[in-house]
Structures are given as structure tokens and as C-alpha cells.
User: Fold these one by one.
Assistant:
Number 1:
Amino acid sequence: MTAGLKTIIALSFVLAIGFLLVILSAALFHNFLTLIVVATYVVAPLPNWIAGRCANPDDFIESNSSAWLDLGRFVTGFLVVMGIALPVLLAHCALIQVPAMVMSIIGGLLIYGTIISFSQFFKEEQDF
Amino acid sequence: MSTDRLFRFPKPAWLNSANTRTAGVYLAGAFFSLGFFFFIDASVFSKSPLNGSIVHITFVDWIPVICSALGMLVINSIEKSRLSADSFSYSGNGVAWKARTVLFLGFALMAGGLAGSVTVMVLKYLFKDYALRTVYMGVANVVANGLVMLSSVILWVSQNMEDDYTYNLQL
């Protein structure tokens, strides 16, 4: 793998910034509701992994094996938008302040982008 | 496939690729999430101190959303190839008829959800002299149901793209 050490360093740097933003958005305003964003984005890639195990791509007789993949993608889309919609909801209902909303959205997107690009860079070569 | 098409303009080629299909499923999930959180926002707003009125979200407001979500579940869990299965001999007796009945139930649930949300908005919020922030709870209900319906449409269309693609894959 050509993209080795530098990629890891850059990704961990971005991940740390993302966590820093989310934790600051919680700690600066003494309101720890924004930590839900971290949980959402950490859970977000899981449905695709689970659905990828459930579906069997070699199965030609049972033609609906892609239903599991579709379900996983649907839940992933749901969770990603949830990570943005939840801080907006909390800010709209005056449960958190608007700066906390902005910080937690940016931090959450950084965390999710790190997870996605990590799994893209270090995907195992699947030729057999 | 190209000889028996109905319209004069052919389908654009990008509409049948696997990437468009994947993006459509992701987009459907995103729209469903947006609609769901619109309604959750309305019901959290109803209990927050910003809502200065005595009007609150009750179970009546929840019924349309529940109907829409159930309808979406029913519509999209039907195996699409069974809808036209009567011409094949292997598919048992009246499978297409059963599938169409269940599909009709799903569409009725979804349309009932949208119509019910409009009804709730008009009867509970618009007919009285409420402030705009109170009427927002009714509007959010309609928006949520509309987004769930849009999400269902996107999911349906992108699942129907599947047939040509898998056909090419298997050959």
C-alpha cells in the first residue's frame, strides 16, 4: 500500500480535531447532549458492514439477496442525515446553543469522513 | 428491450447504472430521516419553553406519520417481480393478485397518512387564531409525511432499476 504512514497520521489528526470539536461543543456550554452526534456517526457505517455479511453476491438463484444491501444503505443514509438533523433539532428547540450546533456538526462530519476514508484507503484487496 | 418501449425518448443511460441505484437508496434513507426528524422536531418543540401556547403534540398528530411509515414498509417489502407473475407457471395460484392487494393496502396507508396530516393541520391549527410558531407544528407534520412519501418514491424507482442491471450481470 503506497498511502501508508502519512495517510494514517493525517487521518488520526483529522479524527482528533473532530473529537475535539464535539467535546468542546459539549464542554464549553455545559450541555452534553451534543455527544449523541459521536454515537450516531460511529454507528453509521455499521449497517453496511452487517448487510454486506448477510447478502451473498454469488447467489444467483435467490435473486433478492440485494434486499439486505439496500436495507443497509437505507439505514446508513438515515443515520448520516440524523447526525446533521439532531443538532439542528436541539438548537431549534433551545436545548443547545447555535455555536454548539455548528461545532458538533462540523466535528461529526470530520469523524464520519475519517471513518469512511479510512475504510476506503485500507480496504482489503478482494481478488481471489 | 429497446423495441418494446412506450415513449419516444429512450431512458438515459446513467439511469440504469448500479451507482445511480446505490445513490438512490442512500437518498431515500436521507429523505426518510429528514421527514422523521421534522416531526420529532415538532414534538420536541411542543414541549420546549419556546412554545408559548397551550397547544401540544398529542397522539392525534402521531397517527398520520405512523400510517405513512407503515405504508412505506409495506410497499417496499413486496417482491417486485411477483407483481406480474401470473403469466409464469411456477408462481402458484394468484400470487400477483395477492401482491397487488398488499400493494394497494400500502398505497392506501401512505395516501391516508398524507391526507390525515393535512386534515390535522387544517382542523387543529389553521382554523383557530394561533400564532405562526404554533401553526409550525401542523406544517411540520405535513412536511414530514410528504418527505416520507418522496423517500418511498425514490426507493421504489431505484429498486426498479435493478432488473436490467442484474440481468446484465448474470449473463
Note: Chain B has one domain: 18-165.
Number 2:
Amino acid sequence: MPLKITRRHAASSLAALLAVPNIARAAADNPALEAAAHDEGTLTWYIAQVDAQTAENLGRAFTQANPGVNVGVIRTTGQVAYQRLLMDIKNHTPQCDVFSTTDISHMPILKERHELTEYTPANAAALLPPFAALSDPGFSYVTNAARYFLIYNKDKVKPEDVPRSWTDLLDPKWKGRVATGHPAFSGCTGTWALGVKKVHGWEFFEKLAQNNPRIGRSAVDPMTLINAGECLVGVGAANNAYASIDKGNPLGVVHPSDGLVLCVTPSGIPAHPPHPNAGKLFMEWLLSPEYARMITADGSEPILEGIPPRPGMPPLGDQKVIQLTVEEIRKGVPEVIEQWRDTFGS
Amino acid sequence: MSTSLPAIRRRRLPFDPLIILWVVLAAVLIVLVVNPLFRLVQTSLQDTDTGAFTWMNYVTAYSRPRYITAMLNSLRLGAGVTVLCLLFAVPMAWAVSRTDMPGKGIIRFLVLGAFVTPPYLGAIGWILLAGPNSGWLNRAWMAATGAHEGLFNIYSFGGLTFNIAIYSFPYLFIFTTAALDLVSSEMEDAANILGAGIIRTTLRVTLPMALPAILGGAIVTFLEAIALFGSPALIAIPARFNVVTTQLLQFFSQPIRAEVAAAYAVPLLLITVVMFGLQRQLVRRRGFVALTGKGGERRVMQIGPWRWVMLGYCLLILSLSVLLPYIVLGQAALSKAWGRGMSLDNLTLHNFTYLLFEHDTAAQSVINSFTYAAAAACIAITLGLSIAYIASRRLLPFAGVLSFLCMAPFVVPGIVLAIAFYSAYAPPPFSLYGTATILILAFATRFLPIGYANADAAIRTINPEMEEAVRILGGGRLTAIRQVLAPLMKRNLIGAWLLVFIPATRELSTAMFLYGPKTRTMSVMLMDMSEEGNFESLAALGFLLLVSTLVIVGIATALLGRDFMLRREKQ
């Protein structure tokens, strides 16, 4: 009998162990990893999804949760981060401990080249099903997702003129006033262009070219131009847009009726990280509720179970979303980049 | 008078143990200049995977119309910028150097302002000024005339050309004033006596005397313009055209094709070599005997009411280049959200405190920029000085070759040099990728010609007899250098050091390819911030850069007791 009780105890505490990460910090469960990470003392994070200030804040929050482990944040656009990682690999000078990109197809390519470390964070099971489906168990996990939708300047665009769909951007009244990022730099912009191409065909972009859009590099660029009134309408990511609205900028957002695109950020550990343990601890943290709450506050999607979305944001379930598979993105984005250069000239 | 002297001296002293030191210096030069360029050419002829010999990289690099268009765009851009700079700098240099125009001090100071302003920072200032819809100038124009469209569009080929020109002209200004400062008035007087007016004298006598300097400056301007990365990234990409530098970066996106990039860059090298060859031909055929630096009375020309016209012209250009952009950048730097415009509740100092105390990498990038630039300046000056000394005292055979190598980086656009360094030192066995060393070496190489040219000029002013006196009295060559040469040249060298240091603090095109996570410079940081539209912090960082540079220049000017940059050739 006592044996049975013990077993039951063991089972329940095991269940608690599995459940606990949903509530408490996952890393707290792994003192050995924490100690090893502490010995390494630092890690380098290549990150594309958020702006530098947010990325630094995230890094600091990690250090607060794990004193003695500092985060060196290298924030740039997804394709540029990937380019740097490839240059690191090519020159056998590994720098990056955790790689977070905005082009989800980078991960399968890296995995096939054996350039990813195999690691399963304790809290991986808490990922919401749609994001778990886009993750590659043991190698890369979705750690951010943001709606890619229409943004406009509230002060300068009359309510009746506010665009409601992507095709509204083709209206000649926006000539010279539409802003986008560049797929060769921004992974999100590549995913977005692919999604719109899937629904409307490449003709959409040929028509858009006639409207003489202003093409920046990052997905954040359009927001800057629209805030300034240089452009009036454009394409933007929710997390950047809401952060900018919170700052007091005159920015409005619209969920397009022909479907928004979800820009998904996977994270993984490169094959030969200089700080493997700190990298693992950081991966644990990227899947922690604390982190998930921080990014939803800025307007990213809740990626874990039990995390509420940013107050006031319409639920994602009510929105039309253009669905793209990893395979489609992998094949489609390089094509889109080439087509983009041919159509837009740069 | 001293032409036969070196030969005699060499016979008298057949072996100097210091020759080992000189050989070491020469070896360093080979590492910095010869090897990277050799590797660049070699890489361009290698297959990406197998390393086998191939011409295919050249085929790939020049087979697509888009790539060729980018190359042609750059050549057009370089030519346009050079012409504009000639129009800006030469009249300004003439007015400052040869006429009685008032306000010369202010003009020199503002030119210094333009010189220390990184072109990409100026580009951002001009995006805020001449964005077709929201730019301050365009809004003012629309408000004044009721027009629906702005007057200027910075996002155009013309816009980019203009923008680069207003930040590139100081080179030409420095070269031209330096030369004009040395032209004595005797020839101008002769022309006057023979009945020529001011304009005719200037065009037929004064300016032709400075022709070698003007040509040299024009070539440097051209090379700088086609080597720039920041301004085209900020302006040409939205304006939807490519230039060489933005195209080269594309070769480094997946899959990385460093070999194709090298092949794409090699013809650029040939073009610049040809240009310098042409310049030498042009200069060699004429005599420029007045530029002896000796004697001759110099008087400024009395140009009457025209002096106000000239002042107006100089101020116009300098407001475009310095005053207006810094006003808009100032507004952004002090704003919570720059899109909200000027208002009290939008005013904040947070961007500065954020950069200095909260941002993890901004402070480090500032430190990086200044330490790398300082280290690079020390290397460039030491090396330049040593080689200039070897060459002028003929301590080694083939000293002429060494001087040529010191000047060789001059013909290499910055971005090509970066790729050459990347090819030579990024992969094993050196594995310098992402280290401070590779950045410092690249900066030192890039600005070695400035260091050498200045050191050479300084050494030429010193008669070898003074050192010989030391040596006759039993002192070694090092004693002579330490006790005689160094004190005599101290001022010139501080000036030369600054001329390397300032452009090195803002260098972007080489840093772009060579920086790593720990070695980001301020220039790279500014580009990253521009990418994410963080103009408030960016403008604040730009001001920090400007102020720190001006402080350093101020200290140096106090040390020198004179204006280092603009009169370095005088006295």
C-alpha cells in the first residue's frame, strides 16, 4: 500500500513537473543548466522580429530572471541576420548562441546542413497548436508571431478613405504614398509578399509598382514613413505598430478583408554556439510565460496556452489569415525576392 | 642640390643594422596592401565550392542586365558628384584662400562641420528635409505656393547625387585651398600688369597652378562617391535603383557569393588605376614650379562687392550641407516621436540618456568607433612616416615601390577593400572575422595614403643636414629621429593623425562587411537604427558623434595652436 501511495505521489509530482512550466519559469527547474549558463556568463542573440529597443528590453528581462547571464543583442532584419550567421559559419567563427529569424524557411535549411543544435526546451509542449505545428521539435520553435496588416496615418487619411484590403493599395489616389519593406532584407516582408501573391497573383505587385510605392528595407520602415506623413498607407507588423501607437504616433491599423499574413519567428541554437548552456537557458526563457506576456503586451500573438492577447486587439480567430506552409515559404520567398527586384528595380 | 647625396651616403654606410626594422615595416605593408588585393583577384578566379580556377564568376557578375545597370549607375553617380563638388568646392576654396571675402573663419568651421558629418547622417537629415511629401522644405514650399506637390524629391538619382556631393566636397576644398595657399601673387600680378582682370587671372593663372591638387581631389571625390554604402542604402533603395555597393551587398546574401562579389569589384579597381594614370599624365606634362613652398609674397585679391556674393554662395552651400540638416536632426533628437513635429509635450532628453545609459550596445559602439579609429590612425601615421622616411633618405632599395604601395589603397574603393580584407583574413588560418583587429587593420589600410602623403610632405620640409649633424656627432639614426625629426614634425603629425582619425570614426563601407557582434561601430549602429526607423535615437547618436569629434578636434587645435585641417601645407 505505502508503495502505491508513493507511486501516486510520484505520478502527481511528475504531472506537476509537466504542468509547472506553464506557471513558473521553466529554467528554474534546471539548476544544472542555470549553473552552467552562469559560468558562461553571456550569450549572443541574433534577433529580427522586434526593434532594437524591445530586443534589448527582452535581453535585460532575461538577465533579471537569470542574474549573471548577460545578453548581447544583435538586432537586424531577418535576411541580414541570416546572412551574418552564414558568414559566421563559412568563416568558422561562431558568434551566435540563439538565432531568431523572420523567415521560417531558414530553419529547415540550417537543419539539413547540420547547423542547428538539437535541444528541446522543457516548456515546448505549451506552444499553442498552430505554432507547435510550425516548429521543428528538437531544433527550432516559434517564439514570436505577429499579424502583418495594413497601417495608415490617422491624421491624414479620412475615415472613408481608409484602405480595407490589400487591393485598396492599388488605388491611384495612393500614388507615391504607399510604403512597404523589402523582401531581400525583411523576412516578414518576404512572407507577406508571398501571401499576397498567393491570393492575388504577381500582377498585384506589377500594379503596385505603377503606384510608385516607397520601399524601405525593414518591415519597420513603412511605419516610420507613415508616422512622418511622408507616406499615408502601407504594410506593417502588429507588434511594431502597437508599440508606435503607444508612443503617441498617429498610426491606425486595419485587418485586411482579403486576409492578413502571420509573420512567424522561429528560434534555434546554431550548431557550434560559443555559449551552449546560456543559449539553452535562453531558449527555455523564450518559451516561458514571462516572455510570452512581454511580447503580447507589444501586440505580438500569444504563443503559449493561457496567455491573454493584448487588450483591445480583435481575436486572431475572427480574422481571415492567408495560410502559408514552411515548404511554400522556403520555395516561394527566394522567387519573390527575384521577382521583386525585377518589378521594382532595387 | 642633394640629388647625388644619397648615393654617396649609401656607399659610406654599407650596412645599417636598422635595416631589419625597415624590412619589417615593408613586410607589414605587404600584409596590409599587397596580400588583400592579391587575394581579391585570386578569389575572383576561384570556384565557390572547389576553389578550382574559373572565369565563371566574371560571367555571373556581368551577365545580368541588372548588375550592369548598377555599375553604370555608380559611374554616373561618381561623375555627377565630382562635377557638383567642383562647382561647390573650387569657388569656395578660391574665395577663402585668395580673396578678401569676409567671414573666412566661419566658412572654414562649417566646412569642418561638413567634413566630420558622416554622409549617411546627412542623408537622413535630407530625407527629413526633402522627402517629397513630408520634407520640411517641401511642406514650406507647398504652404507658400499652395502647390499639391513638393519641389524636391530626395528619393531620386539627382537627389542622391546632390546629397553625396554636399558631404564630399570638403576633400576637394582641402586639396584646393592647400594648393592655392602656396601660389604666390607674383604671377597674378604679372597677369594683372598685362591687362587681365580678376576673373581672367583666376581662370588662366591661379586655378591652373592648383590643377594637380584639383585633379587629385576630383579623383578622390569620385572614388569616395562610388564607394559609399550608407547614402545609397538610405536613398537609392527607396528610389528603386541599385548602385555597385548595394549590389555588392546582395552578393553576400544567401547563398554567399564572395567570389562573384570579388569578380564584380575587380573592374572597379582597374577603372581607378586608369584614372590615376591619366591624372599623372596630365600633371606631368606641365610645370608647376610655383608650388615650391618657398618665398613669394602672397596677397589677397580685392574683389569689391563680389566678396559678398562669394560669401553668400559659400553660406548657401554650407547651409545645405550643415545648418539645415542639423536643425532637423536636432528636432528629431529632442523628440519623443519625431512624426509629431515641434511641440513642448513632444520635447525630451530621453534619447540621449537612453543611448548613454540604457542602451546595451550604443555606448560600446561609440567606444569601439573611437578606439578603432585612434588605433588605425596611429598605425597609418607610424607606417606612413616610416616609409616616407625610408623613401626620402633612400635607406632601402625599391623604396619607390614602398611609396607606391602606401598610396595604392587610394585607388581601392572602401567597399572593395573590405571584400579584399574579408577574402584575405576572415577565413582560417587568420580567422580575424568579427575581431577588432580586422577592422583596425582595414581602417589603417584604407587611410594609409592620407597618413603617408602627410608624413611625406612633412619630411620633405626637413633638410637631412640636421640629422647628419647628429650622426656626425656620434648619434645613431634612431637618436636623430627621436631628438631632431620627431620634435620638428610633431605638429604636422598631429594634423595628419586627425585627418586619418576623423574619417575613420565614421567609416561605414569597410565596417559593414567586417564587423561582428562585439565589434559594431557607431556607423553600423546608425545604419541599423535607420533600418528600423528609430530616427530619434539615431539623430541623438549622430549628435554625440559630432560633438565628440569636435571636442577631439578642439583639443588638437589647441595643441597645434592652429587650424590643422585647412592650412596644413602652409609655412
Note: The CA atoms of residues 239 and 281 of chain A lie 25 Å apart.
